[in-house]
Known about the structure:
By secondary structure, this protein is an alpha/beta fold. It has one domain (2-343): Glycosidases (TIM Barrel), CATH 3.20.20.80. Helices cover 40% and strands 16% of the residues. It contains 13 helices and nine strands. The chain has an eight-stranded parallel β-barrel with strand order 1-2-3-4-5-6-8-9, surrounded by six helices. (3S,4R)-3-hydroxy-2-oxopiperidin-4-yl beta-D-xylopyranoside binds at residues 43-44, 132, 208, 239, 314.
Amino acid sequence: HLKNSFAPYFKIGTAINIEQQLDKRRGEFTELISSQFNSLVAENAMKWDALNPEPNVYNFALSDKLIDFATERKMEVVGHVLFWHNQTPEWLFKDTNGKQVSKDLLIKRMRHHIRVLNKRYGEKIHAWDVVNEALNEDGSLRDSPWKQILGEDWVQQAFKIAQEELPPKTKLIYNDYNLHNRNKLMGLLELLHSMQANSIRIDAIGIQAHWALDYPSHKNLEFLINTLHKNKVQIHFSELDIDVLPRPKQFDGGAEITESHKYNMFIDPYKEGLPTSMQNQLANRYQGLFKVFLKHADKIDRVNFWGLTDEFSWKNQWPVANRTNHPLLFDRDGKAKAAFYSIIK
Length: 345
Ligand code: XIL
């Protein structure tokens, strides 16, 4: 079992789509989840638009289900996510007249949101992704309503509010993708240093780890791990999956996917299943990555897969919709793949 294999080193988690894995086909997945993992994230249910789609309307049904499931089984829960530019309702950035909300009111709403969640879940949530994806690929701050309304130091403000409102024990995470790219990493370090210089707590960096068979290299990955460690933050691999489908090269640098890319990518070569040679490539890739993780285990708090089985992976829909991807350790029948056996000890 994964969780036993890695217990001496780091927590091992997965992202759960609660409607699918804890409800509809309940018995089929609960055993797999609780036998293999000791940490859980809601894939969508704790995002702002899912929790609070309209002013004063909170939907807790799904997130309650996840928290109860985890608590009963003594699994850790990581909250995903407080402040992000996606899956965030439009009303949040508007005042009651439909104009852009003032800075003061937005800060009030942020504080209120954390208070509501903290009152309900408190220390049942071990760590929160406080801010998600605030950086551009060149390391600058992404343009978003958060930045427009709160200003250039919006990430710092967000962590300050989280620090003030959440229990001191709750770990505060900054989460992002493509952090192995040097420019983005430099931008992250700038952010980190400005928080550390101002005594704003930031405990960990979540490296999303939506990767492929050929990137990032072990060298770049180790550079990233060592750099973050030197800068005094814990490391979470927060959203690990390995895309096995064709993609445009430009995409690795985080470029937008254009229509022509989509055309080139609209092939679905492994619809009938992943051939053995590819299964082995995926297994080797996972084995190599876990060797790196184990080498640096003292720096790593958690390795979390983004999804349970290939059937439910968001990678079937992204960056191009309706393809058949095979990015995880369990196949469409919930059976362990070669990749699973390549990392288990
Ligand atoms: C994805 C989910 O997996 C999808 O189901 C949803 O449609 C879109 O969001 N980075 C993140 C995650 O931080 O929240 C995203 O999750 C994947 C990229």
